Structure formats: C-alpha cells, structure tokens
Amino acid sequence: MKRILSALLVLMLAFAAPAALSGQPFARDYAAMNEAAASALILTAYDKDGNETVTCSGFIAFDDSHAVTTWAAVSQAASLKVVADDGTDLGETKVLGCDSDCNLAILAFGEPTGLQPLAFNESGEVRRGASCVSIGAQDGVNAINTGNISNSFSAEGLDLIQFTAPVAEGVSGSALLNENGLVAGVTMFGLSGEIGYTVVQNMNFALSVRHVTELWDYCRDDEPVELSNWGITDIGVHSDEVSDLVKSREVTLVNDSGYSVTDFRVNVGRSSVTLGGWFKNGETATLDLAKLGDDPETVVEVIFYMRVSGRSEQFNVMTTLGELWEQTYSIEAHSGYGVKPDFVRREAENAPSSERRHIKEAVQTEESFTIPETIEREHNLEKNTCIIINDTKFAITYITMSAEGVYVSLLSERVEPGEFAVVELPERFVNNGGKLRWKFRVGFDSSAYGSWSAWLDMDTKNENELCGQILHAEYDEKTRQFSFAAHPSKGGDIE
Fold first, then answer.
1. pLDDT tens per residue, range 321-330
2. pLDDT-derived band at 192, boundaries 50, 70, 90
C-alpha cells in the first residue's frame, strides 16, 4: 500500500512540475510587483507662482531616460517635480511628445535615471477575466492594487480597457499591467456611485498601450522641448481646440499713460470683472477673466476712465475673450483735441512657437459610444430610469416632471459640467400609457449671464422617449439656447 501511495505521489509531483517551473502569476508574485513599482513615478505640477496644480502618476518606459504620464499634467505645469518610488527626485524634465486627444505625454530626463523601463504588451490585446495590476500614486504614495480585466472597447477613436483594480485620485498616468507583468494600458479614470439600482464599484478605465507606442513612433527621434512649448510636440488632431481650453484666462495690464486710471472693467452682459480702486501710472496688474466664461469668441466690452486734470476721460472698446487671454495690454494716452485714452496690445517678448512637428489623422471607428452607454451595457439600465449627461458649461440644479397638478423633483444634488445623473422616473409616468402629457424640465445655474432661470423642457406622452434613454443636455454658444439630444444609438434630436 505504501508503494502504491509513493507511486501516486511521484505522478502528482511529475504533473505539478511544469506549473511550478512556470513561476507565480504576476498578480500573486509580490516580489515581481514590487520590482515593477520601482519604475513607478509620482508627478506634481506647479504653476508659475509655485502653487501645486495637479498630482498624477507616471512610469519609466522605453529606456531609463524617458517616462510616460498624462498630457493634463504637462499642459498645466510651469515646472514639474518627478519622484521615484524610493523618494528620489529625478531632476529636470522636458517634453518629448504629447497627444492631447488621448491625454498622454512622454517626458525626457536631463540625466539617465538608472531605473528599469517597464516592458510593454506589444500586441495590445487583453483577455476579459484575466488578472491585472495597477501601480500608481494615491495621495502622493505609490500603491499596488490587483483586479481583473472586465472589458475592452473603442470609443471616439480611443482604445480603452475596463478593469477592477481599485484606483484613487492621483493614479491617472499610472501603468496597468497584465497577467504577465507587461504594460497593457495607462490608467485614466474611474467611476462609482449608483447606476439605476446598481451600485458601481471598481469600474475603472485605462488607455490601451497602443496609443503610447503610436506617440513614441511619432516623436522618438525628436529633440525634447521645455514644458512651456509642449504644443510643438502635440500630435492631437484637436490640439488647437485643446490649447484654447488650457489657456490662462488672465490679461496683464500696464499703465503707461502718465495718468491714473479708475474703474477698469471687462463686461459680458450683466457680468463684470473689475480691477477695483485706482490703477496708477507705472503700475502693472493682472485681471482674471475666468468668471466670464471659456468661449474665446465671447464678445466683451473693455471700459475704463482716465483722470486728466481733475476730470475723467472715458475709454471703451468691444473685443473678444480670446483677444485678451494670456495677452499684455498697455493703457496709453494720446494728445490731440485733449488727452485721449488708448488700449494697446503689446507683442509678446517670448511668444511660444506655433510650430507643430507632427499631425496625425483622426481615427474613424466602426463602434463609438460614451462611458455612460458602457454603464448601460454592463449594468442593464432599468426601464424606469434615464441618464442625463451634462454637456453644457453650466451646472444642472434641478430636474422635475409635472402633469395636471402632479409635481415630482427628480434630482438630489447638482450635476456639474461633464458629469451625468441617473434619474428615476415617476411610476405614474412609466405606466402612463399615453394618457397624460408630462413636462420634463432640466434647470441650469446660468448666473454667469445674470440669470438663474435657464431651463430645458420636453413635453411627452410617450414614456419610451425617456425610459432607458441616454440624453445629452447641450448648449449653443451663438444662440444661447439649451437643447436635448438623444444618444445616436437611440435616435435623433428630441424637440
């Protein structure tokens, strides 16, 4: 009997040997995960005044002199501090390449870091259900988290990976490694909260490593540039639009008139930004125009008064926000019939170059859908709910439905621009059967235009126009009108 048991044990060991020789899976190989973490980076961006603007992650890639991170960090940085996992400050960094469309950047270090670059999953393929590891900064400290690949899909020209490894603020730009310890993607963002009757947890997204290798292929032979010139390296097809979004909203003023100026202001409708007080000859001031909106085409009025020999000379001119952002203007005085104030834009002494090294073509995808639709696919959006996506620049402050004396409030908290809300519709409406005409109203905080009463209405008897739908609330800058649009997969515009 002992001989039989010994023989069986030998057979079991023989069959177990190949698995043992293959080593532990990466997500359970703690030594290997910590070795990879040595190549993970923590990045902090600072503005020109030394104030922290954003913290994110990155990792050493390609060789020991380059790193991958987010374009958002680079675009907001006058200076960038890059720290290794062991706390070593890696010194000066420059920008080798950016892709503003997919939020990627490749940095170049002044000196080799001596750190091991992480290897890539060259095929870009991932398997649903396979294990994965996220290594990135969470609250300023690198953390290792494990999970699984949930899905992969394409949306608006981007290849995305959905995964379950927990993430937190600061982890964007970090490496997502597959079951073999190879970089499969770059972590971008996560979603949480209630979707219909489902509580979403660990629903996170990474950009496929394919986009990183594409950017590297474009810029690998280029000379790195200073942070302020990142636009030169940008291959994003929408880079001009993005540049407008990241522009400083400030205008610099220099009083070269020889007189004092009072009540300098920039007006948009009823909204106004003013210097306040007296602006004396020889002084320089900065005026933040962010309150007036983010559309460079918005028409504004510049108005001020110049004190000349005890009386005030008025100056006013119509221009646009885009003509003021990041510009320096001199307030001057010209003689003629009396003294006339003037407002003159100075040419920038060190204007950034408008050159762009590479321009890629927009990618057309057969299947394109938004993250909220992915939620619907993954979590079966309930028939008595709908998703409202706020594609405007105003916060949604209320959502209501009413019909013949019945009034129901459907929103518990504000929906900021770019966010979405899952709205549970009244039972009376869901089971309406076309009997009552309901008014569906979405209200916005439009205080930027001096009004708190902007809203968007839809009258309907048909519950199918709302139930299970994904609706975009949109805003037309030219007409200043709000509108609803259904997701393309659901139909056309809703009147």
1. 989 988 899 9
2. low
Is residue 197 a part of any domain in this protein? yes
Spatial distance between the Cα atoms of 386 and 468, rounded to a whole number of angstroms: 5
Same domain, 275 and 418: no
Q: For 135-190, what is each residue's pLDDT tens digit?
A: 998 877 899 999 999 889 887 778 999 999 988 888 899 999 999 999 999 998 77
CB 342 within 8 A of CB 331: yes
- The sign of the dihedral angle between the CA atoms of 374, 378, 380, 381 is negative
CB 187 within 8 A of CB 142: no
Contact 226, 80 (CB under 8 A): no
E strand segments, 260-394? 260-268, 271-274, 278-279, 284-288, 299-308, 311-320, 328-336, 338-346, 385-390
Among 84, 82, 108, smallest CA distance to 95 is for 108
d(CA 270, CA 194): 38
Which residue's entry shows tokens 């009083």? 255
Residue pair 431/437 in contact by the 8 Å Cβ criterion: no
Burial class (CB in 10 A: 0-12, 13-18, 19+), 413: exposed
Q: Do 403 and 459 share a domain, yes or no?
A: yes
Say which residue the tokens 């200073």 belong to: 226
CA nearest neighbour of 143 among 114, 168, 118: 168
Q: How far apart are CA 320 and CA 302, in angstroms?
A: 10
How far apart, in whole angstroms, are the C-alpha atoms of residue 312 and residue 182?
Answer: 70
CATH assignment of the domain containing 257: 2.60.40
Euclidean distance between CA atoms 23 and 17, whole angstroms: 10
Which one-letter DSSP state was computed for residue 384? Answer: T
Same domain, 69 and 182: yes
Positive or negative: CA dihedral 482, 483, 484, 489: negative
Together in a domain, 332 and 397: no
User: 95 is written with which tokens?
Assistant: 């920008």
- Is 16 strand, coil or helix? helix
Residue 435 sits in which domain range? Answer: 381-494
What one-character DSSP code corresponds to residue 179? Answer: T
Report the alpha-carbon distance of residue 235 to residue 218 in Å, rounded: 8
pLDDT at res. 347: 67
Whether pLDDT at 23 is above 90? no
